[in-house]
Amino acid sequence: MKTTVKIVSLILFLVVLVSCSSTPTYEKSYGFSGNEWTQNVKPSFTVEIKDTTKEYNFVLTLRTTTEYKYSNLWIYMSTSTPDGQKAREPFEIKITNPDGTWAGKKTGTIVENSIYFRKRKLPKPGKYVFQLEQGITNSFVDEVLDVGLLVEEVVAP
After folding, report:
1. What single string gives the DSSP state of each residue in 105-122?
2. Does residue 142 surpass a pLDDT of 50?
3. Domains in the chain, please, with CATH?
4. CA distance 81 to 86
5. Nearest to 61 by CA among 105, 12, 114, 15
6. Residue 107 phi, psi dihedral angles, 5° rounding
7. What is the DSSP code (8-state) at residue 34?
8. What is the CA radius of gyration of the chain?
């Protein structure tokens, strides 16, 4: 009898745990051919926001190999709003710390770095387009695997 109660309790706990996790509003990544991000390649992500009363977390993720030879990567993010307004901002993604250790999460030969934009509200419902471009002076940067964007609703605790 006690075993049955424990099993039922465990199942109920797992159901509650799974039901509390949020599904991302948007999640996509763009993989680079030959692990090279050339200046003419500008990954674009179109996110539809329906509810402007809610807050959203945005996570921009860059994955490189351990052969990446720079300590950072500058990118430009251009944003287009549903009503046609545009903005372009530079962002620095730190790949290594000043002491040479990896700033991001390293798994085998892959290093994942993220920039977090937490609790953002968007002014208008509709489609937002986020376009990325690498911001170095060379025509390409190598050892870049992919870049991704995750958008999730902020869930109150």
Report:
1. EEETTEEEEEEEEEEE--
2. yes
3. 25-153 (2.60.120)
4. 7
5. 114
6. -130, 110
7. G
8. 20
